[in-house]
């Protein structure tokens, strides 16, 4: 294994795995830290953790264990993947994990680059944009667990890290990889170890990738991984992605736990002409709906059913005030994990999930250990196959995909491209 990646959630990890597979690397996404060695021939391993919203010390502990495993597989460069909308609080978990990885790797520098132009995320003057709006006006300011109220990534990561924060601004990035490499060196030598790098276009990310050749630690969204495969693979060594992919046209279901704007639009679109059951926080907290009932609804539905808790920010806020933020998140995730188990026991072999925490809960609930990367459904979302068993999956980031994502994902997972 050459490139060792640690993802702070499961949708984000599949996004990164997709990017590296498209770059020609042989990639496996591991769900949690594997108990044995990787199989031969894996060039990039993505260890997915559910560490984005847990306590910072726990996130650090898990990330260091993942690093140990990846180092033991022979990796020479490490990638810490977080959200392209920098989902985190003032306390973490991005900064504390970066600090711990820098220390363990014995290096004084890493880059921080959440930009992902293919999905509208760009970083300019240290500020993160989603399409034409600042992060803090993009809807992410209402995120249920990590409200992003400040678009200045230098300031936000500055709250979280013990290190000084540096910056490589867009004009330097436009000058290409040599200029970027020199600027990173200057920042690190001035004691600014956590270096935010602007990027607006894919071309910038390729240059940043080249400049990152000798960095031990790269951090960011999947966009900055665009340029990394070329550092590892010579001419003719790129593997065609998805050449072993087989779809599965078996019984299917969709679980949506994300409250993001895009997922809510996807839910509304799909529910117009398909069976759909809303799982409200009140009903779950009061035990008025059970995973058995939700799974039965889906298994008996006339058509492929959608089970969703996705709700608007006022509804989510009211539930959090009533029951507590962590309590309601834990109960909803537990509900969906158990529902997914019942669905697969009932014969479902094709599953689409929306939301990072939700997807993590489902994948952990199903006890899946490794995921093969299949064709891309939408930017940042690949089709996945659980190694050696059912189901085929799509783990959709809350924000990703078009309004008709669910129908498209079911088609591609079903082998119809
Ligand atoms: N109806 C609801 N009421 C309260 N909280 C909700 C509701 N639906 C979803 N949530 C919260 O939103 C979180 C969404 O997180 P996640 O699945 O990671 O989505 P995203 O990918 O958009 O971040 C859930 O963990 C849960 O805490
Ligand atoms: O980088 C991204 O935007 C995604 O890969 C990601 O991390 C998804 O997180 P969620 O939006 O919480 O699913």
UniProtKB/TrEMBL annotation:
Q: Which SUPFAM superfamilies match?
A: YgbK-like
Q: Which GO terms describe its molecular function?
A: ATP binding; kinase activity
Q: What is this protein called?
A: 3-oxo-tetronate kinase
Domain of life, source organism: Bacteria
Q: Does the keyword Transport apply?
A: no
Instruction: Tell me its family.
Output: Belongs to the four-carbon acid sugar kinase family.
Taking every annotated instance into account, which residue ranges of this chain make up the domain Four-carbon acid sugar kinase N-terminal?
3-227
Mind listing the UniProt keywords for this protein, alphabetically? ATP-binding, Carbohydrate metabolism, Kinase, Nucleotide-binding, Transferase
Its annotated function is as follows:
Catalyzes the ATP-dependent phosphorylation of 3-oxo-tetronate to 3-oxo-tetronate 4-phosphate.
**What InterPro entries has UniProt attached to this entry?**
4-carb_acid_sugar_kinase_N, 4-carb_acid_sugar_kinase_N_sf, NBD_C, NBD_C_sf, OtnK
Source lineage: Bacteria, Pseudomonadati, Pseudomonadota, Alphaproteobacteria, Rhodobacterales
Source organism per UniProt: Palleronia aestuarii
Q: What is its EC number?
A: 2.7.1.217
């Amino acid at each position: 294994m050459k490139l060792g990646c640690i993802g702070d959630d499961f949708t984000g990890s599949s996004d990164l795995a997709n990017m590296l597979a498209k770059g020609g690397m042989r990639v496996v996404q591991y769900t949690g830290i594997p108990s044995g060695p990787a199989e031969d021939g894996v060039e990039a391993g993505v260890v997915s953790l559910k560490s984005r919203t847990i306590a910072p010390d726990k996130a650090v502990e898990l990330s260091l264990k993942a690093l140990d495993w990846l180092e033991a597989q022979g990796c020479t460069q490490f990638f810490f993947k977080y959200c392209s909308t920098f989902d985190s609080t003032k306390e973490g978990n991005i900064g504390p994990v970066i600090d711990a990885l820098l220390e363990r790797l014995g290096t004084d520098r890493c880059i921080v680059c959440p930009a992902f132009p293919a999905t509208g995320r760009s970083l300019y003057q240290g500020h993160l944009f989603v399409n034409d709006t600042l992060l803090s006006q993009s809807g992410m300011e209402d995120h249920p667990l990590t409200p992003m109220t400040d678009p200045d990534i230098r300031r936000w990561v500055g709250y979280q890290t013990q290190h000084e924060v540096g910056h490589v601004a867009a004009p330097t990035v436009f000058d290409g990889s040599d200029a970027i490499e020199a600027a990173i060196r200057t920042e690190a030598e001035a004691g600014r170890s956590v270096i935010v790098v602007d990027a607006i276009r894919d071309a910038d990310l390729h240059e940043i990738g080249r400049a990152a050749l000798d960095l031990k630690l790269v951090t960011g969204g999947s966009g900055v991984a665009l340029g990394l495969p070329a550092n590892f693979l010579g001419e003719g060594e790129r593997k065609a992605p998805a050449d072993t992919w087989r779809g599965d046209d078996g019984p299917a279901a969709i679980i949506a736990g994300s409250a993001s704007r895009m997922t809510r639009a996807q839910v509304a679109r799909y529910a117009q002409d398909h069976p759909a059951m809303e799982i409200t926080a009140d009903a779950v907290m009061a035990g008025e709906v059970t995973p058995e009932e939700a799974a039965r609804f889906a298994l008996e539905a006339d058509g492929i059913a959608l089970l969703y808790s996705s709700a608007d920010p006022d509804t989510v806020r009211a539930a959090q005030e009533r029951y507590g933020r962590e309590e309601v998140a834990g109960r909803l995730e537990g509900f969906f994990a158990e529902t997914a188990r019942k669905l697969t026991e009932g014969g479902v072999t094709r599953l689409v999930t929306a939301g990072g925490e939700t997807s993590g809960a489902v994948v952990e609930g199903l006890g899946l250990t490794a995921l093969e990367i299949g064709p891309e459904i939408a930017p940042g979302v690949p089709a996945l196959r659980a190694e050696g068993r059912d189901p085929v999956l799509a783990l959709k980031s809350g924000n990703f995909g078009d309004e008709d994502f669910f129908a498209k994902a079911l088609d591609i997972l079903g082998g119809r491209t």
